[in-house]
Design goal:
By secondary structure, the protein is an alpha/beta fold. The protein is built from five helices and three strands, in the order ααβαβαβα. Strand 2, helix 4 and strand 3 form a beta-alpha-beta unit. The model has no long low-confidence stretch (mean pLDDT about 75).
Length: about 120
């Protein structure tokens, strides 16, 4: 699991300042890491509303331009957000939930399914 950002509502979790983030986003190594993750690994976004386009828009566009085979991408999202996200990010399949209480159940189901596959 990789967490690139902290939570804006909890300032003690923010890992980078805006200037540090801008510097990081300009580094070829960072962009290469993200591109590799997006191209070669199945991804599930949890707790990320996909409303910070810097990483996603740039990396998904770069992967398409490079002709990379993109891996599957999913996002666990409130039902009301799914249509908007699907229209902005055609590569990401929304997994809807109606209540935050559903998130733990969905994740537990995914873990059980993964365990039975191995």
């Amino acid at each position: 699991m990789i967490k690139l950002h902290g939570c804006a509502s909890r300032s003690n979790t923010v890992v980078l300042t805006r200037v540090e983030y801008e510097r990081l986003a300009a580094q070829r190594e960072y962009l290469s890491l993200l591109a590799s993750l997006f191209e070669h690994h199945t991804m599930l976004f949890v707790g990320f509303g996909l409303n910070d386009p810097r990483d996603l828009d740039n990396i998904l566009r770069q992967a398409r331009l490079a002709g990379a085979a993109e891996s599957e991408k999913f996002a666990l999202l409130p039902s009301k957000s799914c249509a908007e996200i699907a229209s902005r990010f055609s590569q990401i399949q929304p997994v809807p939930y109606d209540s935050h209480d559903d998130v733990a159940k969905i994740l537990a189901t995914l873990v059980r399914c993964a365990e039975t596959r191995n």
